[in-house]
């Protein structure tokens, strides 16, 4: 088989038949075209790489909260975990802001949350709870209760969360009560508002 140099020599010296020369030139044009396409596509491919990496690691998740009703709890998946978004009523927020001796860690000193959420509602905006919906005891999923008289009396609030596995109880900011198996408050993930009605988790 001829080498590339030999083919170029034959073309240069006109020793190659016209039909053969046309085939060689077409093949060369195809190869150069392919190289050109790859060069042009590289910036686009490179721009995709971080996104693919983020997706593999569980990148940020956006949620539109414009349709989230008061008292409604929505769950979104982030890094394989359920993350709750709940819009609290003024009454709920007011209750969270009152001291409650039943809480084990009311100031969230032993709990996981971003610095911006170290406050009574454990949130950036008082009305919106964003929390990982996994019990800090053994990982069950607590359930929202809005009409449980005993729970509301303990929390001095119109609602809270009850873990069905071993009975841990949390207020509407994810703060755990004393003397239950769960050792800490529910985790609050990193999040921020990208628009007035869009939350980015992670
Ligand atoms: S897993 Fe929730 S109380 Fe045990």
TrEMBL record:
SUPFAM superfamilies: ISP domain. The keyword Electron transport applies. Coiled coil: none annotated. Keywords: 2Fe-2S, Cell membrane, Disulfide bond, Electron transport, Iron, Iron-sulfur, Membrane, Metal-binding, Translocase, Transmembrane, Transmembrane helix, Transport. The chain crosses the membrane at residues 24-45. It catalyses: a quinol + 2 Fe(III)-[cytochrome c](out) = a quinone + 2 Fe(II)-[cytochrome c](out) + 2 H(+)(out). The Rieske protein is a high potential 2Fe-2S protein. The main subunits of complex b-c1 are: cytochrome b, cytochrome c1 and the Rieske protein. This is Ubiquinol-cytochrome c reductase iron-sulfur subunit. The gene is petA.
């Amino acid at each position: 088989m001829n080498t590339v140099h030999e083919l170029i020599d034959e073309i240069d010296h006109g020793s190659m038949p016209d039909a053969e020369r046309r085939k060689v030139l077409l093949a060369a044009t195809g190869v150069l075209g392919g190289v050109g396409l790859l060069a042009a596509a590289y910036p686009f491919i490179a721009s995709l790489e971080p996104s693919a990496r983020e997706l593999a690691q569980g990148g940020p998740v956006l949620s539109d909260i414009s349709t989230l009703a008061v008292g409604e709890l929505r769950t979104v998946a982030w890094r394989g975990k359920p993350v709750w978004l709940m819009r609290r009523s003024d009454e709920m927020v007011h209750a969270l802001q009152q001291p409650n001796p039943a809480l084990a860690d009311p100031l969230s000193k032993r709990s996981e949350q971003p610095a911006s959420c170290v406050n009574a509602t454990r949130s950036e905006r008082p009305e919106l709870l964003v929390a990982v919906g996994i019990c800090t005891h053994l990982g069950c999923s607590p359930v929202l209760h809005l009409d449980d008289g005993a729970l509301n009396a303990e929390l001095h609030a119109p609602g809270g969360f009850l873990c069905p596995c071993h009975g841990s109880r949390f207020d509407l900011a994810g703060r755990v009560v004393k003397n239950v198996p769960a050792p800490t408050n529910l985790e609050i993930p990193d999040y921020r508002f990208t628009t007035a009605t869009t939350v980015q988790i992670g």
